[in-house]
Structures are given as C-alpha cells and as structure tokens.
Amino acid sequence: MERFHGKTIVVTGASSGIGEGIARRFAAEGANVVLAARRKDRLDALAAELGAQRTLAVATDVTQPEEVEAAIQATVDRFGGIDVLVSNAGVGLGKEFEETTLADWRLIMSTDVDSCFFGAQAALPHLKLSQGTIIAIASASGLGGDRKLSAYNAAKGAVVNFTRGLAFDLGQFGIRVNTVAPSLTVNDEQAAIPEYGRLIERFNERRAMSGYATPADIAGAVTFLASDDARFITGTVLPVDGGITAGSGQPDLF
Ligand code: NDP
C-alpha cells in the first residue's frame, strides 16, 4: 500500500531506533523521506538503502533552531514542500533527582522539548500550504511519573501538552497535531539480550499484554496518524505500550 506516494515526510532522530523505523515505514509506503539527526554517516547509509531518489539526509542538531530551519529549507528545496513532520529525536536520562545537574536538565529539555518547538515553527509555513500534520514522539513517561526520571517526565509531559495546545492553534489551517507515547521499545536483537529480557519481564508485570514494542509498532501508529484515516483526529495522545498506561500502577491485588 502506498498511502504516502508523493508526500514528503521529515523525521528527526532518524539515525537509529524508533526514528529509523518510522523512516523505513514511510519509505515503504511511497513517501519522500528526509532523515535528520547528527550522525550523518548513519543517515547516509539509511538513505542509500531506502533509495537516493526519494530520500535526503541532513545533518541536524535539533537543539539548534538554525539547524532545524536549514533542514526544513533543504527539504523544501529538494521536494517542493512538507506534508508531515515527525519530531522524534530525544534523549532520556535515569538519575536520582539529587544527582541530576542543570546540564542534564537542559540537555533533556533542549533535545526533547525545544526541538518540537523549533520544528513546528520552521515547518509551519509549509504545512499551511500542504494542510499537513505534525506528530511528536513523547513517551509513557510523559503521562505519569517514574523513579529516577523526573527530568524526562517533565520533558515528555511538556511534549504531550505542547502538541495538545498546538492542535488548537493550527486547526484553523487544517493542520493536525498528535502525539504517540511509546513505553519500552526495542528491536528483536535487543530483546534477545538478557538485560533487556529482564526489563521486558518487569514491564510485563504491569501491562495488559505481554511482549514488547518494536520500532515498527511505533511506526504503525505514526503512519496511521499521518494518514487520511486519521483526518479528524487531532490533539490526541496515542499510547503504544501494551496497556501499561491504562493500569492504575498497583501491583496484582488478588
Ligand atoms: P535512540 O537513542 O535509538 O535514538 C534517538 C535519536 O535521536 C537518534 O537518531 C539521535 O540521533 C537523535 N538525537 C538525539 N539528540 C539529538 C540532537 N541533539 N539532534 C538531532 N538528533 C538527536 O532512541 P529511541 O529510538 O529509543 O528514541 C526515539 C524517541 O522515542 C525519543 O524521543 C525517545 O524519548 C522516545 N521514546 C523511546 C522509548 C524506547 O523505549 N525506545 C520509549 C518512549 C519514548 P543522533 O545521535 O545521530 O543525533
């Protein structure tokens, strides 16, 4: 199925993990895909694999507004416009609050939150023309609190509510804005590593379903929200977490 034939998608953080999975899925569905992250060698390799004609790799630090603007401009220069912005680039940090430094806090806020602001600002004129859509990758950690993740909780909570507010501001232009909230997401190779296996088991104690999400699962939710099937869906948060955020967080009681 080529739902995105002729459409142009920008994916930040496309050099690994979830962003790479999202880029692969859009490419498989016919889109022009712009890969933005700092590790240009990885972007170039992915672009070559996906096909040079319909991909563009742009070295981008999403914490720098002028670099985000340059990536958006490069997209328009190459493909003539933008239909979908996926703000996926992000970092997490597990640390006791007492050990969390100002530099840690600023790194997380700039990478996870500022990047969404910069992307939306830069893409807006072009999304107005295409009546396009923005999708941010938040986290289950943006929907509640976690041990040793208060900075990340704050950042992803900001992403969730930024996209909700933005949906109201941009709806007048026919632009939809949504968020996908994964919990632990690993590829099959990672899942086979004992350390990850134990982590997955601990998550499964709190999920409605057992198993784990892969980048392809997150990409499925993102492409749905980007598609015409979601044409009246905006301002929403779609958890892809096997039901973990549907729970009350209590241990098995009976
Ligand atoms: P990875 O570490 O595999 O990928 C992170 C991506 O973000 C990389 O492509 C990296 O590229 C990019 N990135 C980081 N900093 C910057 C920067 N300053 N400028 C540009 N790009 C940057 O992580 P995941 O795939 O796991 O995470 C992707 C998103 O999903 C993140 O927002 C994360 O918070 C979220 N998430 C992930 C979960 C998981 O379990 N995997 C669960 C919930 C949410 P490069 O280093 O080349 O710049």
Which short descriptors sum up this protein?
alpha/beta; single chain; 7 strands; globular; 254 residues; binds NADPH dihydro-nicotinamide-adenine-dinucleotide phosphate; 7-stranded parallel sheet; 8 helices; Rossmann fold
Structural account:
With 254 residues, the chain is an alpha/beta fold. The protein has one domain (8-246): NAD(P)-binding Rossmann-like Domain (Rossmann fold), CATH 3.40.50. 45% of the residues lie in helices and 14% in strands. It has a seven-stranded parallel sheet, with helices on both faces. Strand 2, helix 2 (40-50) and strand 3 form a beta-alpha-beta unit. Helix 4 (102-130) packs parallel to helix 5. The longest helix has 29 residues, at 102-130. The N and C termini lie far apart (46 Å). The structure holds NADPH dihydro-nicotinamide-adenine-dinucleotide phosphate.
Query: Which fold name fills CATH's third level, the topology?
Result: Rossmann fold
- Secondary-structure element sequence? EHEHEHEHEHEHHHE
Let me know the number of strands. 7
Number of domains: 1
Give a list of the ligands: NADPH dihydro-nicotinamide-adenine-dinucleotide phosphate
- Fraction of residues in helix: 40-55%
- The order of strands across the largest sheet is 3-2-1-4-5-6-7
User: Mind summarizing the main beta sheet?
Assistant: 7 strands, parallel
CATH fourth-tier homologous superfamily: NAD(P)-binding Rossmann-like Domain
Number of helices: 8
What is the top-level CATH class? Alpha Beta
